Amino acid sequence: MRFAGARPGEFANARIMIGASDRVGDIGPMFDTARTKLRNIIDQRRVAQAIWHDVEVLGWMRVGLAAGSPPDKPRWAISTNLMVCHGTLPYQGFGHALAEGWKSPGQTCVEPFDPAILVQESLAGSIQHATAPWHPSCDGNGAWPKEWISGLYEYVDGWSRSFQSLRIDIGPRDAKLTRHTPCAHVADEWIEPMPVIVGNDDFSTLRYPWS
Questions:
Q1: Of 65, 73, 131, 196, which is least packed with CB atoms within 10 Å of its CB?
Q2: Cα–Cα distances in Å, from 17 out to 79, 151, 176, 197, 208?
């Protein structure tokens, strides 16, 4: 059960701006590399610090146009929105780990859930944002050409083996571990996204999509 036994105050939203490329064929490998990198970051810290054992991460790939894309050729921006259950690890500690892996200014951000909002509601909103497909009808340079959109979907459809190819899913070190006296399960189920989440992400200014 995802996030079972977690308590309020142990959740955060995170975002990684993975990178950008002029080649649509780079999207999958760049996302795969980032997913492996994140898992290695967490695994390395679990070896040294038990406080990382309970950390859980769930997120999906997002693809959009990088800021300043030329009008005649897309420059694809690859990112991921993550829901993080950081357990007793301060959310700032998770943020510092991300910043060590992706060092460019503004490339990562971590924000705790609003304590005034029920965890269930915050998770539902985060999942909805992370998985909600929307048509990239317009960005700062105008409407996307149809051939860009069709080329993107054609590539992702051929690259992705399943919905799992588009997801980052890192559970606790011991999947059977009970952290505390369990509270109500906060994320029993959700709807998987369509084969790709497409947006008009702007790499020049990192915005918090959950605020």
A1: 73
A2: 4, 22, 32, 14, 12
What is the chain's mean pLDDT, rounded? Answer: 80
The residues, ordered by sequence, that sit 6+ positions from 71 with a Cβ below 8 Å of its Cβ are 141, 142
Task: For residue range 72-102, list pLDDT tens digits in order.
Answer: 888 999 999 999 999 999 999 999 999 999 9
Q: What is the mean pLDDT of residues 116-131?
A: 87
Q: What is the CA radius of gyration of the chain?
A: 17
Token couple for 153: 């979907």
User: What whole-number distance in Å separates Cα of residue 143 and Cα of residue 135?
Assistant: 10
Token representation of residue 17: 């701006």
Task: Give the Cα separation of 9 and 79 in Å (integer).
Answer: 25
Residue type, 150: S
Q: Nearest Cα to 113, choosing from 142, 83, 146?
A: 83
Mean pLDDT confidence for 165-184: 66
Q: CA of 206: how far to CAs of 15, 23, 31, 182, in Å?
A: 9, 23, 19, 35
Q: Are 59 and 18 in contact (CB under 8 A)?
A: no
Residues 76 and 66 sit within 8 Å (Cβ to Cβ)? yes
pLDDT of 66 over the 80 cut = yes
24 three-class SS: helix
Whole-angstrom distance, CA of residue 113 vs CA of residue 78 = 24
